[in-house]
From TrEMBL:
GO molecular-function terms, A-Z: peptide-methionine (S)-S-oxide reductase activity
Lineage: Eukaryota, Sar, Alveolata, Dinophyceae, Suessiales
InterPro entries: Met_Sox_Rdtase_MsrA_dom, Met_Sox_Rdtase_MsrA_sf
Keyword Oxidoreductase in annotation: yes
Organism: Effrenium voratum
Similarity-based family: Belongs to the MsrA Met sulfoxide reductase family.
Full protein name: peptide-methionine (S)-S-oxide reductase
Superkingdom of origin: Eukaryota
UniProt keywords, alphabetically: Oxidoreductase, Signal
Catalytic class of the enzyme: oxidoreductase
EC code: 1.8.4.11
């Protein structure tokens, strides 16, 4: 294994080197068809920044010999270890939080990723987007208000949120910071002038109020705000001290447009290094195009 500037280069021997016995044996035909002859197997493609599922559409595992399936699984595991982002996604908890405009919320969560988790720029996972609605567009898209009549998040019942991947034992820390902020604002959020269901307060975790992460969220709240089970397309929470809690399996996160990522707030202006995260994470593949109009303001 070689280490180079934070990246891991895995040196995997050819397929023939994995066979038992004192002398090399012929490579089985099914392995030749999948990996080629005498070359290092290619790692399966990682699909999505928040999804560590590994798949190769060209491999029919049911027809492979047991040892070949074991080899493929080993290579896949090494690929996950080679990607810090994929490893985080596999071991952490994806949770989303909304509290008014997502520009401000994203900045606060990125700061906590840096200070609380010591994450480097390429390891930042906080992305702005939408959740909590019952409907999506015809192709699964959820978009900001636009002139192209694309699937409008407000009309579809969603609210602005920021999704972040955190270690399981840090869910409470991130939830506490969220509740601390909500408690200090008279109307429950930094921008009470933004009114409507698109800005309602929300937390999304796997299983919602019935999931394993809810105990940490509830403890972090310590009775300060009213936690209400989200039903989808829910009402605004401004001035109520309520927070909708969503099951992120039922109401998943939909990444927002690229132009919304790492954006200045309506009032606050953030450092250039913060804005640079957008270009960096697009290059890294952590931010994807979402099939919505990119207006670029």
């Amino acid at each position: 294994m070689w280490m180079w500037k934070g990246a891991v280069l895995l040196l995997i021997p050819p397929v023939s080197a994995w066979t038992a016995g004192p002398a090399p044996t012929a490579v089985p035909e099914e392995v030749k068809a999948t990996f080629g002859t005498g070359v290092t197997p290619a790692a399966p493609q990682l699909r999505g920044s928040g999804d560590a599922a590994l798949a190769d559409a060209n491999v029919d595992n049911s027809r492979m010999q047991p040892w070949a399936r074991a080899l493929l699984a080993t290579v896949a595991g090494l690929a996950v270890m080679a990607s810090p982002r994929a490893a985080m996604a596999q071991s952490g908890v994806n949770m989303y939080m909304g509290q008014g405009c997502f520009w401000h919320v994203q900045h606060e969560i990125v700061k906590q990723e840096a200070s609380g988790l010591a994450r480097q720029p390429t390891e930042v996972t906080a992305l702005a987007g939408y959740a909590g609605g019952k409907e999506v567009g015809s192709k699964g898209e959820v978009c900001y208000h636009n002139m192209a009549m694309a699937a409008d998040y407000g009309q579809l019942g969603h609210t602005e949120v920021v999704n972040v991947n955190v270690p399981e034992d840090k869910v409470g820390d991130f939830a506490k910071a969220y509740f601390d902020a909500a408690e200090k604002y008279p109307f429950g959020r930094a921008d009470p002038q933004d009114r409507g269901t698109e800005y309602r307060s929300a937390i999304g975790i796997p299983g919602g109020m019935d999931g394993p992460a809810f105990k940490a969220v509830e403890a972090a709240n310590a009775g300060r705000l009213e936690l209400v089970r989200g039903q989808g397309n829910d009402a605004d929470t401004v001035g109520t001290k309520k927070v909708w809690v969503y099951d992120s399996n039922e109401f998943p996160f939909h990444q927002g447009e690229i132009y919304h990522q790492f954006h200045d707030d309506m009032i606050e202006r953030y450092p250039q290094k913060y804005h640079d995260l957008k270009k960096l994470l697009v290059k890294e593949g952590a931010i994807q195009k979402v099939g919505c109009p990119e207006m670029g303001f």
